[in-house]
Design a protein that fits this description.
About 40% of the residues lie in helices and about 25% in strands. The protein contains 13 helices and 11 strands. With about 280 residues, the chain is of the alpha/beta class.
Amino acid sequence: MTMNLVLQGPQASHDTLDRLAALAAPARVVRLGDHAIRCEDVPFSAQLKERVDAAAFDAQVDACFIEAGRTLRDFGLVAMDMDSTLITIECIDEIADMQGLKPQVAEITEAAMRGELDFSASLTRRVALLEGLDAASLQRVYDERLRISMGGEAMLETVRAAGLKTLLVSGGFTFFTERLKHRLSLDVAHANVLEVADGKLTGRVIGGIVDAEEKMRTVQRVCAGYGLDPRQAIVMGDGANDLRMMGIAGLSVAFRAKPVVRAQACVALNFSGLDGLLTILQ
């Protein structure tokens, strides 16, 4: 079986890319820009993938084996996690910082993203620590700390132009997803609702928690609503709670992800921006 291999990295030199390409013994090499190449008709094997992945990671290059001919036109939806995927922060950690509790909350967040804690239970614990915080702190986090991940806006502009729908599905909070939905012209957003009473957080979430199962169901529901099969979805995430929705997708993308997620994803973008997806599918 032969596949294509896309090699890309923001700082990757031609020499580095050529050295990595030589490991794959491709029939042809096509330059995709100053920092990316496509190696075509590579004799694929699990052993070759392991060797190339390791060498590429050491060189701070993203390596992706993909079937020849796959383009954005094969897909109808891009579904994204929010925290540490579409945006650079974990919102709950930054909210907790307003309470002086960021280290405690971030430790729980990190363990949950590695898959070491049940997500719903961990979210309940973390949100409880926010009780009594002025709800205006959420706007401060949005204004002062929230940033779109590298390449995110370029990626979204291109997928929209190609006719794909966009979904933001998050174990975070609607305060942020709804603002991002408007700001980035996303089609659908789904997240948890923080309870507020008398202008302060109560330490509770209203309704069911958007956990791994609910993320997967959301991708299925949105696909069905647009007449798509889930295999026509590209799903991007970074944590263990993204694995279920990534598992039903036609293409799963691990972005700056935990090792457990990188190991199971079709594509891992460890160094490139979110627009690295476009390089892979051109």
